[in-house]
Amino acid sequence: MRRTLVWLAKAAAAVAVVLVAFVAILLLVMWREHQTDITLPTPTGPFAVGRATYAWTNEAETDDLAPSPGSKRHVLAWVWYPAARSHADVPVAYMPAQWRAAFAEQLGMFMRSFFKKDPALVHAHSWSNAMVSPAQHTYPVVLLRAGGSALTTDFTTLAEDLASHGFFVVGLDAPYRSVVFVLPDGRVVARSPGYHVENANGNLADPVIGKLLAMWTSDATFVVDQLQRLNADSSEKFAGRMDLQRLGMFGHSFGGATALEFCRQDSRCKAALDMDGIPFGRVVPEGLGKPGMFLLSDHGGEMADPESRQVLAEIQSIYDHLPDGRLYLVIRGANHFSFSDQILLNSQAAMRLLRLVRFGGLDGRRGLAISADYVHTFFDVYLNGTPAAALTSLSGKYQEVHIEGR
After folding, report:
1. Among candidates 52, 391, 78, which has minimal Cα distance to 236?
2. How far apart are CA 8 and CA 13, in angstroms?
């Protein structure tokens, strides 16, 4: 018996040593990844891409989430657009320095030092405040909204690719609604734990979700109003260059729900694309009545519970009432991060371990390429009049794409 106990103790000690060594090596690999430069996928369209930002205050509405009563609502718009390059142009920082610092503070030591790539080492393909390309007099406009735990910059790959195909892409972040926000005076606003949209789990009756969805859609409406003012202001470089008669919106997660509900409410929006977002709001019982598309990740192993089946039923209900040309697609092997830069900027060593437990096996760059192709083709069809066959034929190009709705 004593020999057995001694042997078991030695075996346990050996296993512990192996585990400690494994964790140490994993952390070392993740730390090196964190400190390594990375360049995002190259845009596939013919245009160079410019990026500008606008900080706007909505004086007409108060922010009900702000701790100070009567606080006005703020929005930061990130604008990507077809550009004409010049030798004076400089590349944009993936994330401005103040935003990098604020975001790092929210992440905590482990996430910012090991699991996440340093944003200062991420290289995009946009040019700061470049002139709008003269190739066309006007370009259609597409709004972009990230999910609750992401920032607009997390979707730089999709935004740059869409802009390179001849679109103004306008992403928006807002204090108390985005995971973190830097006000024009430098103050940092973090999202309150009580307003995490991820806690809803598809519950349409959740009062927090109802409140947030109304604010997110209102932010989108305000941004379109501001774009109309920019377009009409002869002193602005974007004056007359945005065709707001050709307006669409796409978003990820709760941003996808926002895209659907905004396009249901606002007649200016002509088409909506929901990327992996649970739908909420009146669009669920009433439908959209405009061209729409669902582009989802692979949730095949998660749909056994009643809540998940209810979400699928709600998506199917909206899809069933969409006009002709609708699409409902699943990207096999994709996970919730496959649509954003996070799939490349999260530790690849950690992501490989997650794949061992079936957390999406799709290569990150492949997933972004599929998403980008569908996004720009969808808006080409419904904002530029490209034949619908350009969109429906894409499934033959990507074997990972499965058509759910018929």
Report:
1. 52
2. 8
In this structure, what are the phi and psi dihedrals at residue 71, rounded to the nearest 5 degrees? Answer: -65, 135
Measure the CA–CA gap between 346 and 324, rounded to whole angstroms.
Answer: 38
- Stretch among 40-54, 96-110, 162-176, 193-207 having the lowest mean pLDDT: 193-207
Quick one: 67 exposed, middle or buried, by C-beta within 10 A (0-12, 13-18, 19+)? exposed
CA 2 to chain centre: 60
- Pairing assessment for the beta strands 48-62 and 139-145 based on DSSP bridges: unpaired
134 burial via Cβ count (<10 Å: 0-12, 13-18, 19+): exposed
User: Do 360 and 125 touch, CB atoms closer than 8 A?
Assistant: no
Q: Which residues contact 30 (CB under 8 A, 6 or more apart)?
A: 114, 115, 347, 349, 350
CA dihedral angle for residue 360, residue 197, residue 151, residue 61, rounded to 10 degrees? 160
Arithmetic mean of pLDDT, 153-157: 97
Q: Hey, how many other C-beta atoms are within 10 angstroms of the C-beta on 136?
A: 13
Average pLDDT, the chain: 86
Has residue 236 got a pLDDT over 70?
yes
Q: State which H helix or E strand residue 52 sits in.
A: strand 48-62
What's this model's pTM, rounded to 2 decimal places?
0.89
DSSP at 237: T
Asked if 143 contacts 252 with a C-beta cutoff of 8 angstroms, the reply is no
**3-state SS assignment for residue 270:** strand
In angstroms, the first-to-last Cα distance of the chain is 67
Residue 136: pLDDT band with limits 50, 70, 90: very high
Cα–Cα distance between 64 and 215 in angstroms, integer?
9
Tens-place pLDDT, residues 307-351 = 777 888 888 889 988 888 788 999 999 988 899 999 998 765 556
Q: pLDDT digit string (tens) for 29-42?
A: 555 666 688 899 99
Q: Please report, as a single letter, which amino acid is at residue 301.
A: G
What DSSP state is assigned to residue 115? I
